[in-house]
Amino acid sequence: GATNPTVSDMLVGLVVGIVVTLIGAALPARNAALAPPIQAMNETVNPEKPVLARGILGTVMVLLGFLSWGFTYALAAADGDGGPTPWKALNSIAVGWPLGIGAALAVIGVIVAGPAYVSTAGAVLGWLPSKAFTVTGRLAQRNISRSKRRTSNTAAALFVGVAIVSCLGVVATSAKASVNSLVDTGLKADFAVSSASAGQIPDQAIKDIKKVDGVNHVVSNRVVLGVKYDGKAINGFTFATQPELFTKIFAAETTEGDAAAALKDGKLLVGKTIADDRGWHVGQKVKATAENIVVDKEATAKAQADYQAKVQAHVQELQSQAQQLAASGDSAGAQAKASEIEQYTNDAKNVDPKTLVKTKKVTTGKTLTIGAIVSNSVYRDFAIVNDDLAEQIGNKQTMFVMQAFVTDKRGADTAQVKKALKKTIKKYYTIVVFDRDEYKSTMSSMIDQMLMVLYALLALSIIIAIFGIVNTLALSVSERTKEIGLLRAIGTSRGQVRGMLGIEAAIISVFGTVLGLVVGVAAGVVIRAVYASEGLETLAIPWLQLLVFLLLSIVVGLVSSIPPASRALKQPVLDAVASE
Question: Second label for 346, Cα 20 to 30 Å away, from 43, 131, 156, 301?
Answer without folding.
Answer: 301
